[in-house]
Design a protein that fits this description.
By secondary structure, the chain is α+β, with helices and mostly antiparallel strands. It is built from eight helices and four strands. The longest helix has 16 residues. The protein is globular and about 50 Å long.
């Protein structure tokens, strides 16, 4: 059966309300947000063309998450002129929805959900760009036992490698734009 988020449309907060209410990581979030710029005029026009489509976006997230702080400013900026309504769902307040969109069996944010106007889920993105997520996928495959004595040491190494994959500066912003565009063009 296809997933639906119809019951959650209009139940979240706006991107601006999220940013205004941030209690953690606000400075870094706003730094990434303010550093965003379109690398491609074609990409900018693609996102603006979404106005003609009946789409909704729901984003499961929390301000304590480093991937939210890095990735969601790009998502917000990419969708700003798209005409696509965005509902931010704070994970802890929407665990029922979070549990429908698990990543490798676990709760990982952000999860960006695109649905039609009726709430039928068309696709999702997250919690991080594919090349960064590949590090976590490999880690989880090689370290399935969270109770192993060296699990925490190994996950710290994986997290450091993920930071390296993000790279310095805003280059990864364009990666996210391209991944979102590819997803949105698929339905």
């Amino acid at each position: 059966m296809a997933k639906s988020v119809a019951a959650k449309i209009g139940k979240g907060i706006t991107p601006q309300q999220f940013m205004d209410g941030m209690e953690k990581n606000k400075d870094k979030f706003m730094e990434w947000y303010n550093q965003f710029s379109w690398k491609s005029e074609d990409d900018r026009k693609f996102f603006e063309s979404l106005r003609d489509r009946d789409l909704r976006c729901l984003i499961l997230m929390a301000d304590w998450c480093g991937d939210v702080v890095r990735n969601i400013p790009v998502v917000f900026r990419a969708l700003e002129n798209s005409g696509v309504p965005v509902d931010v769902l704070i994970m802890e307040q929407h665990l029922d929805t979070m549990d429908e969109f698990l990543t490798m069996g676990g709760r990982a944010v952000p999860i960006v959900i695109f649905a039609d106007g009726s709430g039928n889920v068309l696709g999702q993105w997250g919690p991080r760009p594919k090349h960064v997520q590949a590090i976590m996928i490999e880690f989880k495959q090689n370290n399935p036992d969270r109770e192993a004595p060296d699990y925490n040491d190994k996950i710290q190494v994986a997290r450091q490698e993920m930071l390296k994959q993000y790279g310095e500066g805003t280059g990864y912003h364009d990666v996210i734009v391209k991944e979102l565009r590819e997803l949105l063009a698929s339905f």
